[in-house]
Design goal:
about 200 residues; three-stranded antiparallel sheet; alpha+beta; 2 domains
Length: about 200
């Protein structure tokens, strides 16, 4: 056995908190690789979604509590392959398609995903300026004129299918152009350099 580093005694079992040898702080017992590799497909038969205190919750056989939804393919499949994560960022399961939860359940899931992945739609680019690796954008959306900043512009503009563009600003906000080729000529010339 190696001597402990500094004045710290070794952890029980020789591991570290949250590691494979023990229980981590606020993470519960560790799980084996076999347990981690099992995909739980969520359906109306094994999962019920509901709103409590304005937050999305789920009830399954093994878990009940607050969750958030993450798209596994955010640019291609908006309503399919949705990962359901608990507050500790552990995956509770995967929804193959929101349509499986027909009616109120589907509406609830789509509303939550639309809120989480909200992105104002850009219909006109008014101006773009570059300085020291940042680009400063002034655009028009349905909500009015908006200013935002991109760092490393080429990496912050993501081309999705069908001419769709998603822009991620320095604050983590998303902006969307549904079809870049449908922009007016002046707007297209301002973004063409980055495509």
């Amino acid at each position: 056995m190696r001597p402990p580093m500094g004045n710290r005694p070794p952890f029980p079992g020789g591991g570290f908190p949250g590691g494979p040898f023990g229980k981590g702080p606020d993470r519960g017992p560790t799980r084996t690789l076999a347990e981690l590799s099992v995909t739980v497909w969520l359906t109306p038969k094994n999962a019920e979604f509901y709103i409590k205190n304005d937050f999305l919750h789920i009830k399954t056989e093994s878990y009940e509590g607050r969750v958030h939804l993450c798209r596994q393919f955010p640019f291609e499949l908006e309503w399919e392959f949705i990962s359901v994560m608990n507050e500790e960022q552990a995956e509770v399961g995967i929804i193959k398609a929101t349509a499986l939860f027909a009616g109120a359940g589907e509406d609830l899931l789509r509303k939550e995903l639309s809120r989480r992945y909200y992105a104002p739609v850009i219909d006109k680019i008014i101006g773009v300026k570059e300085r020291y690796g940042f680009s400063y954008w002034r655009v028009h959306t349905a909500e009015g004129n908006v200013n935002f900043t991109l760092h490393d512009t080429y990496r912050s503009i993501i081309r999705a299918t069908g001419g769709r563009i998603v822009m991620l600003d320095v604050n983590g906000n998303r902006f969307e152009i549904p079809n870049v080729e449908a922009l007016d000529r002046k707007s297209y010339k301002k973004i063409e350099l980055y495509l």
